[in-house]
Specification:
Blueprint (H helix, E strand, L loop, with lengths): L1 H9 L3 E8 L5 E3 L6 H4 L10 H4 L20 H7 L6 E6 L7 H14 L6 E5 L2 H10 L4 E6 L11 H10 L4 E5 L5 H9 L3 E5 L5 H9 L3 E2 L4 H6 L2
Parallel strand pairs: 1-3, 3-4, 4-5, 5-6, 6-7, 7-8
Antiparallel strand pairs: 1-2
Helix pairs in contact: 5-6, 7-8
Length: about 230
């Protein structure tokens, strides 16, 4: 939550964050599938209850000043952003297709409870999960996530990326910066798709984004990027 409060303090346009389900079905905001890196525990998020995970210190690994920071649940994050108009990119993370529907249902429920349908943009690498979002709540915008394929680069041709996004009803692409080639961005825009690029910390991307027509940049350091905007 300290990181999210900082984004508000520096005036970022919004945030991007990852959501997983605990064993008892609570959507929590955490990137990794386990607590090994940030909580120094081997446990999987999916194997812990919300009562168990909320007691874990996930801040000390980063710096002593963040000791006792804990994993927030999605409702807590939404409450923090209730009093502003920030854009919220919610990435759903699941380990298998069988987990997707429960995760989608939990996220949509939280979005509805906070009346954030116009502010939350749901993204996922597992594109079928985006179809489930649209089935449950058609007004929620969805974003198809893509990263480079090292084993088969041809899979990620411009047209294939656009077709896959359109097939699941996504309104935007979120591209790893190595995929943000001019031809793809142009074709995506021509197809009516917005384009976001992640993760870029070099201010040179700001002018590049303007030139290429990229709609959003996702960064680890919004203060630096904003200073150059």
């Amino acid at each position: 939550m300290a990181a999210f409060r900082e984004t508000l303090a520096v005036g970022a346009d919004g945030i991007e964050f990852d959501v997983r389900l605990t064993r008892d079905g609570v959507p929590v905001v955490i990137h990794d599938s386990t607590l090994r890196r940030t909580g120094r525990l081997p446990d999987r998020v999916a194997d812990l209850t919300w009562a168990e995970i909320k007691k874990v210190d996930v801040g000390s690994w980063f710096a002593p000043s963040f000791a006792n920071e804990t994993v927030p649940n999605l409702a807590e994050l939404f409450t923090l952003f209730q009093s502003n108009n920030s854009t919220l990119y919610l990435e759903m993370k699941s380990e298998s297709p069988s987990e997707q529907r429960a995760l989608v249902q939990a996220c949509v429920r939280a979005i509805d409870e906070h009346a954030f349908q116009e502010r939350v943009i749901v993204e996922c690498f597992q594109l079928p999960a985006l179809k489930i979002v649209s089935e449950i709540e058609p007004e929620i915008k969805t974003v198809a996530l893509f990263e480079p394929s090292f084993t088969n680069p041809g899979v990620l041709s411009d047209q294939r990326i656009i077709s896959q996004a359109k097939d699941v009803g996504a309104s935007a692409l979120a591209l790893h910066h190595r995929l943000a080639r001019e031809s793809l961005v142009r074709k995506a825009k021509d197809a009516g798709l917005h384009v976001a690029v992640w993760t870029v910390d070099d201010p040179a991307w700001i002018e590049r984004a303007r030139t290429m027509g990229i709609d959003a940049l996702i960064t680890n350091n919004p203060a630096v990027m904003l200073a150059h905007r």
